From TrEMBL:
InterPro entries tied to this protein: Aldolase_TIM (IPR013785), GltB (IPR024188), Glu_synthdom (IPR002932)
Protein name: FMN-binding glutamate synthase family protein
Family in the record: Belongs to the glutamate synthase family.
Domain Glutamate synthase: from-to ranges: 140-458
Organism placement in taxonomy: Bacteria, Pseudomonadati, Planctomycetota, Planctomycetia, Pirellulales
A Pfam family per the record: Glu_synthase
Any GO MF annotation of the entry: glutamate synthase activity
GO BP annotations, alphabetical order: glutamate biosynthetic process
Source species of the chain: Blastopirellula marina
């Protein structure tokens, strides 16, 4: 036998071995879906910095997430070293709107593994009790300021939704169902925020109208902690969605309550109400029926809606328990380009305008503000909290943690990582058990970095960081304090004095002794100043 033939036989055996290994391993969806050739992605990634030093793009150019950002998420989700060496590669003084956190000369000492206050999962409870002001029967304090944003089953694959839910369970955070309803993939142990969209998937009758009894049944049967009425989202505000008949499987049809063989359209607005007055009636109706806190989600366009909402909340006995603001930079599986690029204000601008309306009516301490729209990185999340957010929801960053490679093929149904697809071959590559651990690792790491940042600012919890802690560089021009740019006083964005004291007491208590402090039943409303105070 010639040496060439022997070599070919050895090569064949190696290739068969690689294919067998790639198809059966569960750590890497890309290798499982694309055996052998998938290795090229990892080889190119390994030598990427050297190649990019001379050709292609730098580490901060790619969008919507730069290579540095994706590397940080990937390393964090795998619990690998997520540090970067040799200093920043950003040209700070020549960069416009570069965010700087102004640390304190006297920071809070972060706990070491041997200290009683050390928490390996870096739990960061919300500083406010959701539903407390309106005395909802099932008011609760969210266990995490970082939660998973609304991504429906149908938009994402079943394994991807399950992986995120497993991650939510491990990290002790909430997962928003998205408007597609509660699916079996949402039931892997994580608590849920059920989103109610314009098509009322999961709680609709045969004619597509809202069905309160179905909603009550869902809330009773599943671990739903809150309800979110979606008015619009950042990537396609003011426009509905369309799920083509070709993408509607029997499973999706059963979960959403829609027929097979027909295109399914989500309207651009709700049928149950067409005004602020009607919306508040709807909110109170479902809150009374379920006992759950109820909020709204919206991108920000004209401000008249928010003026009327806060005015009615201040003068009538109705109101939302939380408000989720999505920035125009938010993402979705598919959207018209003009809507993705030009409709709805960016998060920082939009949120500031909304918060101002609540502040003017004295309502800012009574509701929980949730931010969404590319906030899944420590500096962005901390800045959102300083602007007035109480919680952050992450979507695409969470997708990255479970294997998304930013292929930007979500709208085609051919996601190579098995995240945003219903293709049987592609989604089989995503193992929800191992990817669930990665999602949890990412959430915990983000909370860890938020904890360290808040400590560096001299406070115990990121909700206690204010705008005085931030400055923005201005491309060679004098930098500006964030309070000037956003026309806010430094104390804007902070919880009430009682909530500040309560969350500081929680963070100064060893994790194993916090259980009673975290319970919503341990809070009551002071009849004079209307603040919620601890009974402990």
């Amino acid at each position: 036998m010639s040496l060439l033939l022997i070599g070919l036989c050895v090569l064949a055996v190696v290739l068969v071995g690689m294919v067998t290994y790639d198809l059966t391993q569960k750590r890497h969806a890309i290798l499982r879906n694309f055996p052998v050739i998938g290795h090229f992605r990892y080889w190119l990634e390994a030598i990427g910095p050297e190649l990019r030093q001379y050709i292609v793009t730098n580490d901060n150019e790619e969008r919507p997430f730069s290579r540095d950002q994706r590397r940080w998420v990937y390393a964090s989700s795998k619990r690998e070293n997520n540090y970067f060496g040799f200093g920043t590669d950003n040209d700070l003084e020549s960069t416009a709107n570069h965010l700087i956190v102004k640390h304190s000369a006297f920071p809070v000492d972060s706990a070491l593994p041997t200290d009683p206050l050390y928490d390996p999962d870096y739990h960061l409870p919300c500083a406010k009790v959701m539903g407390a002001h309106r005395n909802r029967r099932h008011a609760f304090r969210p266990n995490s300021v970082i939660n998973i944003s609304g991504m429906s089953f149908g938009s994402l694959s079943g394994p991807a939704v399950e992986a995120l839910n497993r991650g939510a369970a491990l990290a002790g955070c909430l997962q928003n169902t998205g408007e597609g309803g509660v699916s079996p993939y949402h039931l892997a142990g994580g608590n849920l925020v059920m989103q109610i969209g314009t098509a009322y998937f999961g709680c609709r009758d045969g004619n597509g109208r809202f069905d309160l009894e179905k909603l009550k049944d869902v809330c009773a049967a599943y671990p739903v902690k809150a309800l979110e009425v979606k008015l619009s989202q950042g990537a396609k505000p003011g426009v509905g969605g369309l799920l083509p008949a070709s993408k509607i499987t029997p499973e999706i049809a059963a979960i959403r309550g829609i027929p097979l063989g027909k295109d399914c359209a989500s309207p651009g607005k709700h049928r149950e109400f067409s005004s602020v007055d009607g919306m508040l009636d709807f909110v109170e109706r479902i809150a009374d029926a379920t006992g759950l806190p109820v909020g709204i989600k919206s991108a920000v366009g004209e401000t008249g809606f928010w003026k009327e909402l806060t005015s009615q909340m201040a003068t009538t006995n109705r109101g939302v328990d939380f408000v989720t603001i999505d920035g125009g930079e938010g993402g979705t599986g598919a959207a018209p380009l003009v809507f993705a690029d030009h409709v709805a204000l960016p998060f920082k601008i939009g949120f500031t305008r909304v918060y101002h309306e609540f502040y003017e009516q004295g309502l800012h301490e009574q509701v929980i503000f949730n931010g969404s729209g590319r906030l899944g990185f420590p500096e962005n999340a901390l800045f959102a909290l300083a602007l007035g957010c109480d919680m952050i929801s992450v979507a695409r960053e969470a997708m990255l943690s479970i294997g998304c490679i930013q292929a930007q093929r979500c709208h085609t149904g051919h996601c190579p990582a098995g995240v945003a697809t219903q293709n049987a071959w592609l989604k089989r590559g995503l193992d929800p058990t191992s990817k669930g651990v990665r999602a949890a690792n990412y959430i915990v790491t983000l909370r860890k970095d938020l904890t360290y940042l808040s400590h560096s600012c001299g406070v115990w919890h990121p909700a206690l960081v204010n705008l005085d802690h931030f400055e923005l560089l201005n491309a060679g021009k004098p930098s500006q304090p964030a309070t000037e740019i956003f026309d806010q006083r430094a104390d804007w964005g902070l919880p009430s004095k009682a909530d500040q004291e309560a969350i500081q007491a929680i963070m100064q208590t060893p994790p194993k002794e916090r259980a009673d402090l975290l319970l919503a039943k341990n809070f009551k409303q002071d009849p004079i100043n209307k603040d919620y105070v601890s009974l402990n």
